Amino acid sequence: MSVENNIKKYREILKPFGAQLIAVSKTKPKEDLLQAYEAGQLAFGENKVQELTEKAEALPKDSEWHMIGHLQRNKVKYIAPFVHLIHAVDSDRLLKEIDKQAEKNERIIPCLLQVFIAKEESKFGFSEEELLDFLKSEDFKNLKNIKVVGLMGMATNTDDMQRVKSEFTGLKALFEQIKAEIQSENLEMKELSMGMTSDYQVACEAGSTMVRIGSAIFGGRNYNQ
Ligand SMILES: *Cc1c(COP(=O)(O)O)cnc(C)c1O
């Protein structure tokens, strides 16, 4: 199937869940992204700062750039002027740097905090406890140029869908808990970014609002990243 058809297909699949499609275009040439754009796809996900910046320059100006990968503090400045949403904020130090760069650019940058849900794998993110403590702290409340709009999580890479389901369901529960219990000017819990090609279905059933799909749309990648 063509990229265009894949975009249409996944839009249809996600519609009943009300989840947004983020087209993960990492490693793919800009021609592929343009095909997706022609099919009406504006939201693109990339995991490397340089690649994201280059593609943002090459694509039409109304496309939206989602940074979905691990972000180093010293690279925040390159995406701060235009990034649409940063999905994988995994430490308070990173969030503070984003706040600083957002202020320089006179904007507020929407962010998702990444939670460590794949218990036996070494993945980035806050633990539940760290996250709750941080969101209740003065340190967090003082950040005026970021807005935390939700959470992001990656499940264990396994065929055991029961396990994936319990990890996603746990993240959804944490999302609801924060929404109910924590108030702050810079916090508005509305997005839950979970699910990729192998597990988007389970993620949608668990309440995902954004799925990050790459290989099912653009085909497999040559190297694993
Ligand atoms: C690559 C990537 C995806 C998409 O993976 P696919 O399996 O190709 O759908 C989603 N989220 C993150 C954080 C990624 O790095």
Describe the overall structure.
This protein has helices spanning 3-14, 30-38, 49-58, 76-79, 92-104, 128-136, 138-141, 161-181, 200-205, 215-218, and strands at residues 20-24, 43-46, 64-67, 85-89, 109-115, 146-153, 187-193, 210-213. With 225 residues, the chain is α/β, with parallel strands linked by helices. It has a single domain, classed as TIM Barrel (Alpha-Beta Barrel), CATH 3.20.20.10. It has an eight-stranded parallel β-sheet. The chain starts with a helix and ends in a 7-residue tail after the last helix. 40% of the residues are buried. Bound molecules: pyridoxal-5'-phosphate (PLP). Residues 3-221 form the Alanine racemase N-terminal domain.
Quick structural overview:
Pyridoxal 5'-phosphate (PLP)-binding protein, which is involved in PLP homeostasis. The chain is of the alpha/beta class and 225 residues long. 41% of the residues lie in helices and 20% in strands.
